[in-house]
Amino acid sequence: RAYIIADNKLSLNAGWDNELLAVELSEIEGADFNLDLLGFDEAELSSIFDADKDVSDDDFDVEKELEEPCFSKTGDMWTLGKHHVICGDATKLETYKTLLE
Q1: 3-state secondary structure string, the chain?
Q2: Which pairing describes strands 77-80 and 83-86: parallel, antiparallel, or unpaired?
Q3: Domain range for 16
Q4: Helix crossing, 42-50 with 18-30: angle to 10°?
Q5: How many angstroms separate the CA atoms of 94 and 28, rounded?
């Protein structure tokens, strides 16, 4: 009895990561599963799937940026925490050797 009460209470306090939920629901729907069986009504599903459409455009000019000279060249490497990013040809062994040094 206590488990049932606790389980119901936990679900009342829980929230959703709508972006992740939309991905999961899309995958399930792609497998020909009827999303109505999950208990979401049409308005909820619309809200979940339309959440990413609220993004507004910024004033970033792609064409202008492409005209600017590149500041990265082959062999450049950045460290981001414990991760490393290298500018190089992934088909060449030398790139991996440099990255893993």
Answers
A1: CHHHHHHHHHHHHCCCCHHHHHHHHHHHHHCCCCHHHHCCCHHHHHHHHHHHHHCCCCCCCHHHHHHCCCCCCCCCEEEECCEEEECCCCCCHHHHHHHHC
A2: antiparallel
A3: 2-54
A4: 110
A5: 42
Whether 50 and 10 map to the same domain: the answer is yes
pLDDT score, position 77: 92
Contact 25/35 with Cβ under 8 angstroms?
yes
Tens-place pLDDT, residues 76-91? 999 988 898 999 998 9
- In the chain, the number of structural domains is 2
pTM of the full predicted structure? 0.42
